[in-house]
What we know:
A: 257 residues; 10 strands; B: 203 residues; Fumarate Reductase Cytochrome B subunit; two-stranded antiparallel sheet
Amino acid sequence: MARKAFLIDTTRCTACRGCQVACKQWNHLPAEGTVNRGSYENPPQLTTHTYNQVRFIEAEKDGDLRWLFLNKRCMHCGDAGCIKVCPSAGALYRTEDGLVAFNQEKCIGCNYCVNGCPFDVPRFTGEKKVSKCHACLDRVSSGLVPACVKTCPTGTLQFGDRAKLIAAAKAKGKKIYGENDLKGLGVLYVLDDTPGTYELPENPAIPASIFLWKDVIKPFGILGFWGAIGAAVLHYVTIGPKQLENGDDHDTPEKGV
Amino acid sequence: MSKYVERFNAGERVLHWTVALAFFILVLTGLGLYARSFFGYFDFFGGPRQGILFHKVAGILFAVCSLLLACSHLREMFTFDQDDRRWLRNCGGYLSRDKQEIPQGKFNCGQKLFGIFSLAATVCMAVTGIVIWDPTAFGRGLTQFSLMIHGLFFTLFIMGVIVHVYLATVGNPGTLDGMLYGKVRKSWAKMHAIKWYRKVVKD
C-alpha cells in the first residue's frame, strides 16, 4: 500500500490547539495539571497523555520578534530508531500505511525506544508502557483521517498519500522538511524559518551510538561468537590440546621443564 | 604420596562458580535484549519483565563477585616477567604441536591477561549497567553511549569466555580439576605452572 503521511504547513497554523484536544478526545487521554510558565505552550512537552503538542517559539530575527508554531509529535520515520532498538517484535511496528504504531501488550518496558528516537518522542506510562502518536491507527485503517487532521480548521494539518502531499506542496513552491531524511519522515513540515529555530535537527539521523550498537556491534558480536567457537574447534582438531604425560606425578620439579 | 597438589581453596572455587553462574544468567537474559531473535530466552525466566529483573539481580551478583575475585588476585594478575613476554611472543605454544613450554607461575601470561580483561570488562559493564538501569534517569546522550558500550563489552566478554572455557577444559586436560576439586595433578603443575609448583614444593 502507498505510504501515508502528515504534511504540516506551519505557515497556516494559528495555534488554536484543536489538534491537541481532538487527539485527547479520540484516544481517551486525560487532561493534565498545568502551570503558567508565561507561554501559551501547554503542556511544555509531549507526555504520556499528550501525543501531539503545539510548540510556541519566540524567535528574534533582525530585531523583530517572530512567534512561530509547530505541531510536534512522532515523526513516523521511514527508518525508525524506535523500531530498530525495540527487542520485542511487534511492540513498535510499521502499519500497512507506513506509519509507526505500538502495541502496549507486547511492550516490555525497557525504554530503549526513548533512547533510539532521533526526536525524543516516545514516553512511558506509569505502567512502564510506551506511548506516542500512532496516527490514529484505528481511524486510518478504516479510511478516515487522524482526529487532529479532522479537526484542524486552517488546513495546517493534512494527511494522505505521502507522494501526493509532497507533489502538491512542491507545486505551490513550498520547501519540505523531512522528505528524504531517515528514509523519509512520515511527518513532513513546511517551515517558516530554519529547522534550528524550531528546535528540529538540521539533518535528522539515528543517534550515532545507537547506529554503532545495532548496525556494527550486534553483527560483529554474532560473528565473534561463532568465530570464537569455530576457532576453538579448529584449534582442537588441527593443533590439538596440550595432553598430560602419564605417570609423572612425582615430587621432582626439575622433570617436565 | 599424593599425586595432587592444592591449587584453589574452597572460597576461591565458590567465588569462581558464583561468577560463572551469574555470567550465564546475564548472557541468557541479556541476549533477549541484545537481539530480537533471542527474545524467546526470556521464557526461561517467566517473561521479559522478570527476565530484566533477573538480569539486574545477576548483574549486581556478578559485579560484586567478579571484582572480589579480581581483587584477591590483583598482585598475581599484574606481575609480568621475562618469561611472560616470551610466552606471549610464542602465543603460549598454542600455535604449534611441538611441546615447548615456557616456565610460568601460578597463572600463565594468557590467564593474567584474561584476568585483567575481566576486571576491565566488569567495571565497564557495571558502570554502563548503572546508567541504563533506569534508561530515563541520565541524559539521552549518556544513556545511548552506555547502551553501546554495554553491548560492545557483552560481545567481547562472550568471546573471551568461550576461549577461557575451551582452554580450561578440553584444550588443556587436567586444568578443570583445579576449579572443581581444588587440586591439580603434579604432572599438570610441572607442565603448566612449573615456577609455582617449585615454590609450593619448597614450602
